[in-house]
Amino acid sequence: MTSEYNQWHMPYTPAKEFNKKVAYFSMEFGIHQALKIYSGGLGFLAGSHMRSAFELKQNMIGIGMLWKYGYYDQGRNGDQTMSTNFIEKNYTFLEDSGIEVEVKLHDNPSVKVRAMVLKPEIFGTVPMYLLTTDVEGNDYLSKTITNHLYDSNYLTRISQSIVLGIGGAKIVEALGGADMYHLNEGHALPAFYYLRDKGVKKDQMVFTTHTPEKAGNEERDGRHLNRCGFFGRYLSEPELQQEMVNGGMINYTVSALRMAKKSNAVSKLHAKVSRDMWKDYSGISEIIPITNAQNQKFWQDEVIEEAHQEKDAKLYTKRKVELKKDLFNAVLNQTNKLFDPNVMTMVWARRFAGYKRADLLLNDLERFERLINNEKYPVQIIWAGKPYPYDFYAIDIFNHLVHYSKQKSNLAVLVGYEIELSRKLKCGSDIWLNTPRITREASGTSGMTAAMNGSVNVSSNDGWMPEFSKDGINSFVFPVIDQNLPTWDQDKIDSDNLYDILENKVLPTYYDKPKKWQEIVFNSIDDVLPEFGSNRMAKQYYEELYK
């Protein structure tokens, strides 16, 4: 039986203002707990975008990768420290589109790439084409390209970009082509080179840059990429010279910024940081801010929403206790600790990376011990998150927190931070702790979905926070410090400020002024929606990037 998705097909007549055909390329999509093809924020963002595009009846498709082992399954070793497990996934709900294309990779002239379709009715997204090289007729090495999201092998990573970019562009061609090609981050850069050669015009290509982190802006040797087939054909020396920067390198972000008619950063602050970061490179496109957002329908608890609409504090409190109990069952199951729903609960949960400072609370152990042993204002703290499987510095921080919290009845470190646990943490927490070093977090969307569920942000003023926060009214924000200070000094000042905020503002308000606390919670939900809901974002892309 032929799939109706072997050509450009929508389950609805697209809305007039969203009629342009857009192909959206992303290395990861966080669509549903059961579809493990994401690692973190970039995926959650892309997943929310696909849901909102569907809700708004946009004429858009997603192009992604079908990762056979996902990112990784986060488990525990015998001593409760973190283990990294790679378990094969099979998705019988995906449909074979019947479309297969070939790409040239390294010395192999014809690696087969097949597109599996996630149909809209499965999870409420626009049609999504997930690419795999685990295909009959490919040699063993080619079959393993789509095994692991962000594979640690240098050559495999390059191959993944070629499969997503050139393979993805060829899939879109087979579907009948698109009006706009949107790269979410630089991973699919080969698409732009391939499309440019095919006569696709500059004003059909747009780009989203996501991170000020060096590791997130890939840079690789130009001659080596040329040999690998990165550009869709072999570039002559003068052609290659035109593309290279920094002494013979191809910087994925610079190339994408140059080839796109327009690009966007993912918050207003990030747009400033990005413009400054890339200002010395010639020929880059304008970088506008389109702040990241998350899908309300998917992430917000319905009863919390109802309580907020009615401004019903009683209903809110009753529901919050239920949601806390649900979260605390997960805590009990994983750590054998009984948490109390009447105690203020703080959560730090996101990807573990050094600059996000999961252990900032432990900077001054004396003060931290005072905080967690305060009988007048008791607290419970939960950490969760996945480090990159080979980021041993971040894994070490994770394990340090495991060992430190083991014997403490009000501290817990959870594994398995994926969509389901993320939802429980956002719904069941009172405080959402966000501690990146300033300007290092491009947007940071977890605090948005936490706020939708009445979890109050306590945060450094980074990413999306300057657009949202009203200190003491809808959140609590660290005082601004000089970001040029040595990191050691920044961490010292920020941790001192964090203890002060918790001891003098957050805990006394929560316990002594419950009415005031409830007001902050409702203000927070008021201000996060609709401004940081992804329907606004999906609209803005059509109005400002695709027009």
From TrEMBL:
<protein>
    <submittedName>
        <fullName>Alpha-glucan family phosphorylase</fullName>
    </submittedName>
</protein>
<comment type="similarity">
    <text>Belongs to the glycogen phosphorylase family.</text>
</comment>
<dbReference type="InterPro" id="IPR000811">
    <property type="entry name" value="Glyco_trans_35"/>
</dbReference>
<dbReference type="InterPro" id="IPR011834">
    <property type="entry name" value="Agluc_phsphrylas"/>
</dbReference>
<dbReference type="Pfam" id="PF00343">
    <property type="entry name" value="Phosphorylase"/>
</dbReference>
<dbReference type="GO" id="GO:0005975">
    <property type="term" value="P:carbohydrate metabolic process"/>
</dbReference>
<dbReference type="GO" id="GO:0030170">
    <property type="term" value="F:pyridoxal phosphate binding"/>
</dbReference>
<dbReference type="GO" id="GO:0008184">
    <property type="term" value="F:glycogen phosphorylase activity"/>
</dbReference>
<dbReference type="InterPro" id="IPR052182">
    <property type="entry name" value="Glycogen/Maltodextrin_Phosph"/>
</dbReference>
